[in-house]
């Protein structure tokens, strides 16, 4: 072995350091906004029922089964709303049983890995536990499933082409890099966007100062949605929060609607969900903005109910 | 130097107690269970100074929690300062680190030893008159405080930096090792969120000074300064565990240079100074030294506390209270002096809090920060709620669970949710809808009370000459508990547009507020 003297060692170290930092200086990945993928007459499934697990299976079956969305060997991200330190009956987070059944379906369809996470508002440890989702996921007992705390190393700033509120934002890369993304929001009241549904749920996979999105909520959420490709949106409306959202805290504000809405078109699913609150799709500005940008269909006559 | 089996036993005890302490320290973190089974504050149950603070504070003495401290006193009366030599985590740390940094060979004048007794008298007299500063010098509090505020955060920071490095740079073997071992570290050996403390450096410096005093003299702190050592020293004056021979032997004198506490002298063995380290039973070349149970008080010298010194110390202690009281009432002067939920009224709080920083260690939202002068001249290291750094988690009761002296009462969750620690106030010159005419609702969205304490009111306003309908946040005073999540999450950069003030705290004794127009 050749011995290196101190001087050589220092010189080589500096060279390595310079080289490494040069690599780090490469420009941020430039992601094109997805081409408007508003399909003609997207399918939309709505089912009602008390048995949550069966409800999920029936709704998915109407869309052609999970196999229509998840192929064997794929990495799937299931993104529920786990934002708040609240228990199931308070309707602030996605129902654990909905999450569990969806994950099981993905596994049955042969998914290589199913990852579950959310960027929570309260302490993530508390939210994961209190929501019941930790227990539900642990119950599945498969090493292909992981409920993960989001890793601060994995956010990356991406350019948003055609962004109207922002031209760049930090995104959580495991979502961008996954083969499939299943968006599983819970339908809730929200003071500014009026309702929080599928599009708002995507705020859980971005970094940065999210509070800033509220200044122009419709444009901002549409910008975000234009970068993240959602394969399937399943809106948990087994119980909905009609006031004091998005975190609730009183059972008086919860309505048991026992409904599940699913569609490959997130905008259509969101549009339908407004009707559960006695609203119309046009009442929610984010839905209107997304439809105008061509991200989906908001006119419920233009969807195919299955 | 030869070690006797007693010395080994002592070292085992020290290591075990230190390890137990560190284990408890790591357990003092939320890991998915609302009720902590083994908080580090259990250690303070054996702390006679914490017991003294509790005893002199208003209200009945907390027998249930603090009886082990009285046990320590009793055993000290019988056997001497075994606590200092065998149990105290600060003492063990000094023994350990002293070996690492090297020890000074100087022997100080025995007169220095009086300092710890005088300090104890000053602190005791001040506490008696309502100004409790014992925690500032309590070795257990110093140790936990230094660990919580400085050593542990720095350790976390360093370790995180190391893991980050292996994440960002692909180093063969090491990177994959780092990635697989990270969850194990994160879930068991590290803080979930990097701790952030304003007084980290300050606390670290004080800890370093105590450690560096080892360079001057072995166990300088314990011998000369520690008031707990002083208290236990007084108690052990007539201990029945006694050393033979009592004096230095005429033919050897080795004890004079090797005894870490300088307790063996020509005139006798000072039981109140001996830390029972048992080294002399090992290093005595003639194997003469033995410890045995004996009564009789011959030859115990103790430290010569001069009457004049004692009186001066007492007078100084007594003087502290009125001098502190002539200052303005801090929690009325400083509206941002907010205490954790369950804190007893401010005056009693200061009498009870031993500045151990246990509450700051366990705080999930990282809102609890040590005070410098924010809580007045004697509020150093007491816990403050600082909502811009973090907020008080609505469903969490951990700080009350870990407080060893009842400064923060343990609240059940339903009580905690109603405990008011402050009131949110919206700053209209910063708040976005008011100041800039743009929509924002982050405070309302995060407000955790079931019926929200921040509501949005829609109004028509003129923005840049055009009429616009906008929603404005408004605080409902009677619902707000002051948790501070609105201040933490406020998206305005720099100073928050909503701030918590200590108005309407539950702990203040006052007549019920009449409902105002916003009530």
Number of domains of chain A: 1
Poorly predicted residue ranges of chain B: none
Please name the two chains that share the biggest interface, counting residues whose Cβ lies under 8 Å from a Cβ on the partner chain: A-B, 29 and 35 residues
By secondary-structure content and strand pairing, the structural class of chain B works out as: mainly alpha
The CATH architecture assignment of chain A turns out to be: 3-Layer(aba) Sandwich
Question: Helix tally of chain B?
Answer: 23
The average pLDDT value of chain A, as a whole number, equals 90
Terminal Cα span of chain A: 72 Å
How would the global form of chain B be characterised? elongated
Q: Compute the CA-based radius of gyration of chain A.
A: 21 Å
Span of the ends, CA to CA of chain B: 75 Å
Oligomer: heterodimer
Name of the CATH class of chain A: Alpha Beta
Rounded to an integer in angstroms, the radius of gyration calculated over CA atoms of chain B is: 27 Å
Could you explain the architecture of this structure?
The complex is a heterodimer of chains A (306) and B (519). Chain A has helices spanning 6-24, 52-62, 96-108, 124-130, 133-140, 173-177, 198-201, 217-227, 266-274, 285-292, and strands at residues 30-31, 43-48, 75-80, 113-116, 145-147, 155-160, 168-172, 180-184, 186-190, 194-196, 232-241, 254-255, 259-263, 304-305. In chain A, 31% of the residues lie in helices and 21% in strands. In chain A, the strands form 2 sheets. In chain A, strands 2, 3, 4, 5, 8, 9, 10, 11, 12, 13 and 14 form an 11-stranded mixed sheet that branches. A 3-stranded mixed sheet of chain A has the order 1-6-7. In chain A, helix 2 (52-62) crosses helix 3, helix 3 (96-108) packs parallel to helix 5 and helix 8 (217-227) packs across helix 10. With 306 residues, chain A is α/β, with parallel strands linked by helices. Mean pLDDT of chain A is 90; it is low at 25-30 and 32-36. Chain A is built from 10 helices and 14 strands. Chain B is mainly alpha-helical and 519 residues long. Chain B has 2 domains: 1-259 and 269-331, no CATH class; 421-519, Alpha-Beta Plaits. Chain B has helices at residues 5-27, 48-56, 63-79, 82-87, 89-101, 114-128, 134-137, 139-168, 174-189, 200-216, 220-225, 227-235, 254-258, 279-283, 307-325, 330-333, 346-352, 358-362, 398-402, 413-418, 432-435, 442-446, 485-489, and strands spanning 241-244, 264-265, 268-269, 290-293, 368-370, 383-385, 423-426, 454-463, 466-475, 498-501. In chain B, the strands form 5 sheets. Chain B has a two-stranded antiparallel ribbon with strand order 1-4. In chain B, a hairpin with a 2-residue loop joins strand 2 and strand 3. The radius of gyration of chain B is 27 Å and the shape is elongated. Chain B starts with a helix and ends in an 18-residue tail after the last strand. Chain A binds chain B through residues 20, 24, 85, 121-123, 125-126, 129-130, 134, 153, 190-192, 209-212, 214-217, 244, 246-250, and chain B through 30-32, 164, 167-169, 192, 364-365, 393-396, 432, 438-442, 444-452, 456, 471, 489-491, 493.
